Amino acid sequence: MNMNFEFNLFNVIILIINIALIAIYVLNSIKLTKLRKNYSDFMTKLGKGNNINEMLQEYVKSVDEIKKENNEIERYCQKLDTDSKNYLKNIGLVRYNAYKDTGSNLSFALAILNEHNTGIVLNGIYGRDTSNIYAKPVVEGNCEYALSKEEKEALDKAIK
Known about the structure:
Elements: H1 2-46, H2 52-84, E1 90-96, E2 107-113, E3 119-126, E4 131-138, H3 149-159
Antiparallel strand pairs: 1-2, 2-3, 3-4
């Protein structure tokens, strides 16, 4: 009977091992099914083709093209930034009466400067019989010609 007990114990151990293996098999089958579904979803999202190497190569090519385009855009932006320093973009305007008998502040002083405070000051003087416009060059905020009070005020406004 002792042998019978050992034989039954051996059968029970084998049975337990078999049940454990079946449980592992079922769990692995479930995981494999989920993995296949995820892979299928992934491939569907990637688009055409079933060869992942080809798809990755296409994506690498498109990333390289995007990098090239980005570099071109960066160069263009740097050029625009450099060029914009020379654009006339700082403006100061002062309206005034050049003559006491002429009203409505029809005369003006206009300063137009770039980023380096280089540009021009225009002075438009309106009179009853005549109107004149004078231009004076400005280099780095300074003018080699004498400026009127209104021209200085316009220049100060443009520099600020």
